[in-house]
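Q: I'm building a small set of examples for a reading group on sequence design. Run inverse folding on the following structure and report the sequence directly after it, with nothing in between.
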């Protein structure tokens, strides 16, 4: 039986090994279905086999390691899923996604070493395409597992014109066997994921980990503001129909509305902006900018969007302009199941860690997995809240405690199933 520090030390070593598989030149860049992804997936499968899992790949390239039940019970034909992703952004850190896969493997190794009896099986999953960097898709791997993959995603092409389905064949997958990757709903007990927080809350409060209450819903818009071009030197300020000035006022409204929704962890971001015609001496006739708005529940996010639409129209009317909001992405809030939150809470109590609940502002594979089963997540403190950056970092002690918390949560779910005779 390893101590949390020993588990964290092993996790750090495994993460270092995995970081060596990269398509980048001097940095960690591992995109979905790339040669580095395939090499990393093979390495992960080897780890799984070394701890006693029956490992292989599904049709979309997800690595699956399977552990059979070790105790009798009604849940014996069902499986607890534990996982995360092994693809990265460009010039990534080594913890985002990969920590969840490593903690799952280490938890299985300890569960077997401690002879913890399981009335259900466990599958450890290493997904791809969580980051959505190579193709204009996201969560393809976990969506196939959950049975909610959009078939047209397989026709998406990367920047080099390579279709996802062709890249999948080169990887060793099978785009024609997508249905075989899907679990039956009555086959699965729940999905658990350990992930770095990607934010500063846990560090600010001095906590090694926290329990996720929900994965924030997201709405994304392309907003077009249309005014009228004019000479920068001859059109009086009071007579201008300046699309950029109107857009600037709208952006201040976005900030105001998001701050008012702070009780729901609301955040809003304008990430791209283009002004046309784009000449130094011409009043902008058209501005296109993006809006990404997120919150820990759907109702406040949708209410904020309705308020923004109304205030945008008023701003445009007051400036002789027009505005169109075109929604191009919508992802509802994914709640984390209370029973799984409680399993992590019990684990935290056993480890002497405060029961801190927080929502995730970032998206995760749990968004897709929620279509299949209940979702539970544990966040691990990360230094400075930095993520998607080579400076991403979690300590050995925090990672070790996270592995231990995962083990104890699984143990609690097993004990509940055994004592109640009820697999749910």
């Amino acid at each position: 039986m390893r101590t949390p520090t020993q588990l964290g030390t092993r996790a750090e070593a495994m993460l270092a090994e995995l970081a060596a598989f990269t398509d980048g030149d001097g940095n960690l860049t591992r995109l979905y279905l790339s040669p580095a992804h395939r090499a990393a997936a093979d390495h992960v499968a080897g780890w799984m086999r070394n701890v006693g899992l029956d490992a292989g790949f599904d049709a979309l390239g997800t690595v699956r390691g399977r552990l059979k039940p070790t105790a009798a019970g009604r849940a014996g034909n069902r499986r607890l899923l534990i996982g995360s992703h092994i693809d990265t952004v460009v010039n990534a850190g080594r913890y985002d996604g990969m920590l969840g896969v490593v903690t799952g493997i280490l938890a299985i190794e300890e569960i077997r070493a401690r002879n913890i009896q399981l009335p259900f099986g466990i599958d450890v999953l290493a997904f791809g395409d969580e980051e959505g960097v190579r193709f204009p898709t996201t969560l393809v791997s976990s969506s196939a597992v959950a049975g909610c993959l959009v078939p047209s995603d397989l026709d998406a092409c990367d920047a080099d014109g390579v279709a996802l389905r062709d890249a999948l064949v080169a990887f060793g997958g099978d785009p024609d066997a997508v249905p075989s990757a899907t679990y039956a709903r009555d086959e699965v007990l729940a999905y658990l994921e350990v992930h770095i927080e990607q934010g500063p809350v846990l560090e600010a409060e001095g906590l090694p980990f926290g329990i996720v209450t929900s994965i924030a819903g997201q709405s994304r818009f392309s907003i077009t503001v249309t005014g009228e071009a004019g000479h920068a030197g001859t059109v009086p300020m009071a007579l201008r129909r300046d699309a950029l000035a109107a857009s600037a006022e709208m952006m201040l409204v976005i900030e105001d509305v998001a701050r008012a929704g702070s009780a729901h962890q609301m955040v809003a971001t304008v990430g791209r902006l283009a002004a046309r015609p784009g000449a130094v001496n011409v009043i902008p006739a058209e501005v296109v900018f993006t809006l990404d708005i997120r919150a820990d529940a759907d109702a406040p996010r949708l209410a904020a969007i309705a308020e923004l639409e109304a205030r945008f129209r008023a701003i445009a009317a007051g400036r002789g302009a027009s505005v169109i909001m075109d929604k191009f992405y919508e992802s509802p809030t994914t709640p984390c199941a209370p029973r799984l939150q409680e399993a992590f809470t019990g684990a935290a109590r056993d480890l002497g860690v405060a029961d801190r609940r927080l929502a995730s502002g970032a998206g995760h594979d749990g968004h897709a997995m929620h279509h299949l089963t209940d979702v539970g997540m544990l966040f691990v403190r990360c230094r400075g809240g930095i993520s998607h950056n080579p400076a991403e970092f979690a300590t050995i002690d925090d990672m070790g405690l996270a592995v231990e918390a995962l083990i104890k949560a699984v143990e609690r779910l097993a004990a509940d199933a055994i004592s109640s005779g009820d697999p749910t």
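The longest helix spans residues 396-420.
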